[in-house]
Amino acid sequence: MTTHDITIDTIDTTIAGGGIVLLDFWAAWCGPCRRFAPVFEGAAAANPDIAFGKVDTEDQQQLAAAFRITSIPTLMAFRDGILIFSQPGALGPAQLDSLIAGIRALDMDDVRRQVARQRAIRDAS
User: Fold this and answer.
1) Which of the two ends of the chain, N or C, has the fewest CB atoms closer than 10 A to its terminal CB?
2) Which of 11, 15, 20, 30 is catalytic?
3) How does DSSP classify residue 72?
4) Catalytic site includes residue 38
């Protein structure tokens, strides 16, 4: 599997599609982004059941702003439509593999309970 270019028009359907979604926020002028690109592509090839998307922050400035991207590269991970990881900085292959393994191992019923609790607390205040 390869990566897909994500735009403001495709972001919602990409995340709502379920399963695991990894997003790489990047720009062509960014050296660390260029170094991370083959790591991200390699993980996409090794994990065809995961949606790998790339968001060009120069072309998709509105989308980058909506996700509050202040540093690139930034990697975000969603599972079943829930944001579960967001971190700036390039990862190495072993780090990305470890992250993917951790995402796969999550108990999503527990994650959904935690999200519901956080929403209830926020709504009560």
Assistant:
1) C
2) 30
3) S
4) no
